[in-house]
Backbone:
């Protein structure tokens, strides 16, 4: 993290990536097992520390360079990569690595996926010599991609040892010498691209090519090879695409024995003078002979002598049952089964299909469509049909296909359905057909067509309005009287409190009738004071860091002795949180969020509510912290902020994820997840299971404590002590409703939690008398919202450091 720039904001969540829910990092048993960082603006070098991640199985860092990105990671590929012996997938494509390929990569004997494409690598392909390792030792590799670099010299003969290889990409380099013999790969190699290299001009297409019986795609344009093209090449049974354009191929073309699978043969700009049985194959395959001497003959068909058209640019899968597409209203789309609805759309991207996108797409697009529908039906997902459009290669030579998914029985998906469908694609639950390879990702577009809320949920009768107004006015008068009395007491107390009791902020004690004190400014510390307090910034005193690093512009925070709520739930702090303490913490954090939503001016949406961002002081009073992602609702009439989705996986509001509209109810959703954490002590996403779903599946409302005994944290207390737990769970599940309007406001959450606490007090159910006494004393002394027992920790709009006790 210190080496790279522009890392994800979540990487500031503590110093441990396995405890901080860092985006792109997957852990098991406290060790990093996967690093997946795609399409990010990373910059820096690959440090030596990478070799210490000995449990790492997947390393994928891809920047996808274009004009809007930096050049990604730079410098040489660190040989320490060779220490990652458990690595099965290594993909560092689309960066700016330079220098040679480390021979130490050959030590990664479990590796099945190697992708170093689109860098600035130079030198030869390293192979073993009995002393040093080399890439020929990757005998488990199935995908081998070194294209779009500046590699030179011969393709070493040892590369033939990769007998399990399925795809080989070496195009767009400066390779020379003879064409490498690949007969050892005959059982599995189905895709080979050696284009745009400088092999010996005197070389000819080797006869052993016809022994590669698994080949589906051959791409070798502009490689200096020539001579008579062997007819046996066209007898490979599964061959679909041949691109041998811009070569020195001459003589007579004979494809009389081509397989039925053959779809595209590009031999443009060669020296072919004749073609046997040309008329017989004019309608069967896409053949390009443009730029050959044969096309100068007047009797030759224009079909062969015109450059091939891109037949995939506007392709889409056909309509079902030959139905007639209807004329849909504005905004609606006609589905393949001729219904008008709002589809869920996005790009599905395949890294290494075993076919070319230049082929006739009919076969593989229909195969993918049938596979998707079979999967959706198997998973009981409400999908009526899917449409696939416009297959093409992107800048990284990956196959992109536009995907539309249409709802079953309705014009729109609801939010739950969108989450289920999107989850199955973004989390790789869906297994694509074999020819598409398993490596893919799905980039969905925000879905904004959820069914309209019933008018009965928005409207009430005139009678209800009148009664509500009358009651509201009476309550308001009472509250104003109480507020006046409370404000008077606050002023008297403020006069007696010396300024020294507030070392971190300057307050205005004469702020008028408002019951919330006003912040005049934060206290400034001199550099000399900081040097003194930190013992010259000694590393011995180092306990954490924020998102802006160390040394120049600094924010000073009060020391939170008991660290984060996550620390206590995980057992790291050594504090046992019984049921009463957990309720008190929940209430405190809820009041902090209520202040942000209802009292701050302008109202603030925290945007990153989680157990790591709730701090506990010496009396276990909760303080909401870390405002690095917060957004203000600056317009008084504004109900949401439209912004790029950010937050921590597992806590993010699904409605915000789909619509990119951030509301106060987004904080409510995250807080609901924290509430479920408090009773289970489980991470939001643990072993592939989502905490919300786990609680819903485990609960049975007809039984005591909703039959959640198996999922509750064992340290929470005895069953007989958990008074109010059912109401707590009900409240949490209301907070994590799929749609924002179904969730309570934080003010409602506070009221319900206070009611549960009162229930606990009246029934004298507490883990110890000291716990209850502590609660009552804190309640009596509590000065809302700022005091020594404050439930809200102001951090000046910056990322709060994660403070751990030492």
Residues:
């Amino acid at each position: 993290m210190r080496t790279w720039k522009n890392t994800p904001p979540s990487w500031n969540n503590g110093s441990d990536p396995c405890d901080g829910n860092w985006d792109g990092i997957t852990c098991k048993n406290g060790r990093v097992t996967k690093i997946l960082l795609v399409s990010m603006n990373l910059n820096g070098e690959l440090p030596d520390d990478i070799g210490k991640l000995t449990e790492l199985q997947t390393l994928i860092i891809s920047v996808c360079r274009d004009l809007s990105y930096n050049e990604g990671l730079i410098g040489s590929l660190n040989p320490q990569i060779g220490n990652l012996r458990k690595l099965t997938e290594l993909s560092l494509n689309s960066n700016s690595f330079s220098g040679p390929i480390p021979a130490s990569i050959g030590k990664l004997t479990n590796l099945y996926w190697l992708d170093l494409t689109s860098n600035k690598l130079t030198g030869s392909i390293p192979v073993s010599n009995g002393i040093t390792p080399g890439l020929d030792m990757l005998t488990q590799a199935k995908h081998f991609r070194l294209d779009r670099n500046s590699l030179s010299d011969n393709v070493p003969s040892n590369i033939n040892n990769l007998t399990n290889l399925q795809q080989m990409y070496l195009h767009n380099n400066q390779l020379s010498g003879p064409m490498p013999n690949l007969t050892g790969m005959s059982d599995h190699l189905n895709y080979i691209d050696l284009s745009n290299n400088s092999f010996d001009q005197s070389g000819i297409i080797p006869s052993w090519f016809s022994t590669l019986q698994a080949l589906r795609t051959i791409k070798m344009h502009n490689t200096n090879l020539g001579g008579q093209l062997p007819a046996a090449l066209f007898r490979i049974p599964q061959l679909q695409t041949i691109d041998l354009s811009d070569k020195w191929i001459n003589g007579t073309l004979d494809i009389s024995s081509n397989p039925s699978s053959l779809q595209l043969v590009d031999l443009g700009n060669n020296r072919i003078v004749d073609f046997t049985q040309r008329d017989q194959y004019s309608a069967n395959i896409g053949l390009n002979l443009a730029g050959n001497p044969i096309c100068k003959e007047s009797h030759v068909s224009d079909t062969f002598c015109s450059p091939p058209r891109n037949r995939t640019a506007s392709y889409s899968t056909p309509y079902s049952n030959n139905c007639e597409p209807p004329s849909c209203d504005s905004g609606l789309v006609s589905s393949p089964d001729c219904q008008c609805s709002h589809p869920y759309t996005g790009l599905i991207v395949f890294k290494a299909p075993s076919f070319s996108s230049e082929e006739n797409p009919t076969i593989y697009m229909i195969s993918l469509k049938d596979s998707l529908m079979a999967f959706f039906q198997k998973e009981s997902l409400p999908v009526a049909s899917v449409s696939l459009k416009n297959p093409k290669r992107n800048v990284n030579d990956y196959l992109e296909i536009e995907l539309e998914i249409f709802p079953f029985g309705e014009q729109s998906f609801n939010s739950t359905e969108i989450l289920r469908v999107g989850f199955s694609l973004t989390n790789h639950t869906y297994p694509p057909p074999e020819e598409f390879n398993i490596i893919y990702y799905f980039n969905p577009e925000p879905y904004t067509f959820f069914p309209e809320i019933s008018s009965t949920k928005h409207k009430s009768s005139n009678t209800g309005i009148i009664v509500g107004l009358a009651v509201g006015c009476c309550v308001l008068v009472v509250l104003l009287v109480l507020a006046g009395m409370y404000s008077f007491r606050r002023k008297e107390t403020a006069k007696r409190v010396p300024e020294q009791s507030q070392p971190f902020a300057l307050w205005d004690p004469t702020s008028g009738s408002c019951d919330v004190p006003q912040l005049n400014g934060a206290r400034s510390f001199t550099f000399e004071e900081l040097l003194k307090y930190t013992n010259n910034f000694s590393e011995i005193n180092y306990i954490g860091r924020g998102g802006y690093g160390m040394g120049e512009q600094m924010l000073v925070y009060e020391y939170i002795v008991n660290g984060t709520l996550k620390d206590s739930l995980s057992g790291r702090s050594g504090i046992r949180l019984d049921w009463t303490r957990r309720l008190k913490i929940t209430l405190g954090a809820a009041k902090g969020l209520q202040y942000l939503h209802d009292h701050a001016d302008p109202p603030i949406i925290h945007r990153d509510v989680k157990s790591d961002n709730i701090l506990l002081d010496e009396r276990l009073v909760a303080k909401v912290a870390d405002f690095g992602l917060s957004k203000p609702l600056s317009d008084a009439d504004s109900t949401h902020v439209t912004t790029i989705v950010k937050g921590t996986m597992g806590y993010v509001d699904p409605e915000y994820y789909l619509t990119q509209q951030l509301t106060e109810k987004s904080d409510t959703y995250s807080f609901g997840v924290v509430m479920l954490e408090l009773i289970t002590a489980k991470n939001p996403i643990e072993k592939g299971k989502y905490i919300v779903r786990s609680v819903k599946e485990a609960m049975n409302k007809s039984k005591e404590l909703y039959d959640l005994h198996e999922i509750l944290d064992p340290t929470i207390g005895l069953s007989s002590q958990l008074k109010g737990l059912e109401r707590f769970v009900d409240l949490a599940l209301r907070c994590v409703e799929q749609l924002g309007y179904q969730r309570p406001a934080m003010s409602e959450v506070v009221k319900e939690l206070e009611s549960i606490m009162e229930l606990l007090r009246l029934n004298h159910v507490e883990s110890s008398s000291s716990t209850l006494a502590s609660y009552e004393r804190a309640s009596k002394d509590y000065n809302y919202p700022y005091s020594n027992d404050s439930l809200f920790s102001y951090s000046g709009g910056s990322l709060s450091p994660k403070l751990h006790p030492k």
